[in-house]
Write a structure and sequence with these properties.
The complex is a heterodimer.
Chain A (H helix, E strand, L loop, with lengths): L18 E3 H12 L3 E4 L6 H10 L6 E4 L3 H13 L4 E5 L1 H16 L4 E9 L5 E5 L4 H6 L8 E4 L3 H18 L2 E7 H5 L1 E3 L2 H7 L50 H16 L2 H4 L2 E4 L6 E5 L2 H15 L4 E6 L1 E3 L3 H8 L4 E6 L4 H10 L4 E6 L8 H11 L7
Parallel strand pairs in A: 2-3, 2-4, 4-5, 5-8, 7-8, 11-12, 11-14, 14-15
Antiparallel strand pairs in A: 1-9, 5-6, 7-13, 10-12
Helix pairs in contact in A: 1-2, 1-6, 3-4, 11-14
Chain B lengths: L5 E9 L4 H14 L3 E6 L3 H4 L2 E9 L11 E6 L2 H7 L3 E10 L13 E4 L1 H9 L5 H13 L4 H11 L5 H12 L3 H4 E3 L2
Parallel strand pairs in B: 1-4, 4-5, 5-6
Antiparallel strand pairs in B: 1-3, 2-3, 6-7
Helix pairs in contact in B: 1-6, 4-5, 4-7, 5-7, 6-7
Classes of the chains: A alpha/beta, B alpha/beta.
């Protein structure tokens, strides 16, 4: 474990400048955060994550496994997590569907692991090489039962690095699976990325402790003590509802308490889990709420809107779940419209509407043709909303 | 062109010509020039045939929208790519094409350069595979989009072992081209 602080990105082209592909940045972020186990099955547009892990993990004493399918992949990761190793897998829509049952199991047995879904157009095999955000609600509710979820969304190459690190940290701290969503454009693009940024994002050793069964002191009252395989005890791990001994229980009181605790350990820490960024804060009549590659379109739309005299602000969400209720409601109180551009038919707009409809009008702007929303399309919609055709 | 604070570049050709790699190398060179860069590409041209593209955005500030909204510099090695992409070229843009592979260049009013890149590569090294590196050298000589030094380093970073010498010769040949010699039109 002493080699966790690996600094994979210092493989640099030279010491000052880098050009890194999004999927590669994700793998390097995982390595830098201490991930030492990867099991996966290749699928476009996520395969480069696996490819990088296959090459890099053995060099740092980690384990890489190519499994026969995605079900086996995530189950191998859960097994590794139960021995105290930080584990990750990466896939796209069809593989993510296969993983759903095991995500519920990981949640139930409180196995920390990171699942990366580089989204492509679905349903089914869809369009493997076209970007989409169609798996947002699957990431939240894809597995059955009343479960919590931690879901992050990456919008650029730097995000792929730092949000992978954040996902590892959240998974380990809250002992739960954490999902990172990206899309084909973010995964496949190459982008300049300075070593200065890496220095800013890199976590310090104080953020992590990889001792099996470790629980952060702040979390001991909220996280159940882990049962570690290979620790010379006799742990029992089950997806059945269980008590703190790890053995199944049908006791209604214990059952109720256990499920509520699973939720509370996430829900009570929204301030830590909900990452976001507001541009042009407090100056907009319309707020564009966006995540993933749409947030890049939204930021470009903001520049265009400024040139055209349209009062716009942008709320860029890095965390989709747990729902960032506080910031959504804070912004909703001050704007006339919330415009939600997405590469799906309004999945997250529905979530925002539930949180914001008491104060503002939430407008969904969905696109599913496998291309990005352009800044022009967004600004035109903004102009339409505030009835300012004359200034466009 | 290096003076422009925001520049959108597209390389186009058919699968196998090394078009994707041209974009990657240019992006690496621009990053070495300490500029913000985003590189995107069409996916899987070798499987599909037809034309493929590799796009690079070079900017002095952070790049938000990652795809091209117009083209400032278009470099094409096939007729299909030329026909398909020339419409996106801005009036202030520059058009560079292979003078033999693009037998009937589409009309463009701004500066156009027609160079027989593939033939020059074969003459210089006996190998068609290095035409992409020769083209990159020529593009930098004709437009100054990145520094020649950064381009040399970027090429050295990516070329496979055993091909360094051919690539070096192709790159030098490209960098030695003189703009006035190859200018086709400049309305």
């Amino acid at each position: 474990m002493e080699r966790w602080h690996y600094h994979a990105l210092q493989e640099a082209i030279d010491s000052s400048t880098l050009l890194v592909q999004g999927n590669r940045a994700c793998a390097l972020g995982a390595l830098d955060a201490g991930v030492r186990f990867f099991a996966g099955y290749p699928i476009t547009p996520s395969s480069e994550i696996m490819e990088t892990m296959a090459y890099e993990l053995p060099r740092v004493g980690g384990v890489f496994l190519q499994m026969e399918d995605e079900i086996a992949s995530i189950c191998a990761c859960i097994g590794a997590a139960l021995t105290g190793t930080l584990a990750m897998t990466a896939t796209s829509g069809p593989g993510f569907s296969l993983m759903q049952e095991a995500i519920g199991y990981a949640t139930m047995v409180e196995a920390p692991l990171v699942i990366v879904n580089v989204m492509r157009v679905g349903p089914s095999t869809g369009r493997p090489t076209a970007p989409s955000q169609g798996d947002v609600m699957q990431a939240r509710w894809g597995t059955h039962g009343d479960h919590p979820a931690v879901v992050l969304a990456a919008s650029n190459v730097a995000d792929m690095y730092r949000l992978t690190m954040a996902a590892v940290r959240f998974a380990q701290r809250f002992r739960t699976p954490a999902i990172l969503l990206a899309d084909e454009v973010v995964g496949h693009m190459r982008e300049s990325f300075s070593t200065e940024l890496i220095g800013r994002y890199r976590l310090t050793s104080g953020d992590f402790d990889f001792t099996p069964s470790y629980v952060h002191p702040e979390m001991v009252r909220e996280v159940h003590p882990p049962h570690v395989l290979g620790s010379k005890t006799h742990p029992h791990v089950t997806g059945l509802m269980h008590d703190e001994t790890g053995f199944p229980t049908d006791d209604p009181a214990k059952s109720d308490q256990f499920l509520r605790q699973l939720h509370d350990k996430i829900g009570n820490h929204r301030d830590e889990l909900c990452l976001y960024d507001v541009k042009n804060e407090g100056k907009g009549r319309v707020c564009i709420v966006a995540y993933g590659s749409c947030a890049r379109s939204a930021r470009a739309a903001l520049r265009l809107a400024e040139q055209e005299g349209l009062p716009v602000e942008v709320l860029h969400l890095y965390t989709l779940f747990p729902l960032p209720v506080e910031i959504i409601q804070e912004v909703a109180r001050r704007v006339e419209f919330m415009l939600v551009p997405e590469l799906n038919l309004g999945q997250y707009a529905r979530e925002i509407r539930k949180m914001a409809e008491n104060w503002t009008t939430v407008i969904s702007m969905g696109k599913v043709d496998g291309t990005l929303l352009t800044p022009r399309e967004i600004v035109d919609r903004v102009a339409e909303l505030i009835g300012k055709y004359e200034s466009v | 062109m290096a003076q422009r604070s925001f520049l959108e570049v597209r390389f186009g050709g058919s699968g196998g010509q090394g078009v994707i790699l041209m974009g990657v190398i240019l992006a690496m060179a621009a990053a070495r020039d300490h500029r913000y860069v985003v590189q995107t590409q069409s996916y899987g041209p070798e499987a599909r045939g037809g034309y493929s593209r590799s796009d690079v955005i070079i900017s002095d500030s952070q790049i938000d929208y990652p795809e091209l909204q117009g083209i400032d510099l278009l470099v094409v090695l096939s007729q299909a790519a030329a026909d398909h992409y020339v419409g996106l070229l801005r009036a202030t843009g520059v058009f560079v094409f292979d003078a033999e592979r693009v037998a009937s260049p589409p009309r463009f009013r701004g500066p156009s350069y027609g160079v027989p890149f593939v033939r020059l590569a074969v003459e210089e090294t006996g190998r068609e595979q290095v035409a992409n590196v020769l083209t990159l050298g020529a593009v930098v000589a004709l437009t100054g989009v990145v520094s020649a030094q950064s381009l040399r380093q970027a090429v050295a970073d990516v070329v496979p072992k055993g091909t360094e010498e051919w690539n070096e010769r192709a790159l030098s040949r490209g960098l030695a081209l003189r703009a006035e010699e190859w200018l086709r039109s400049n309305a």
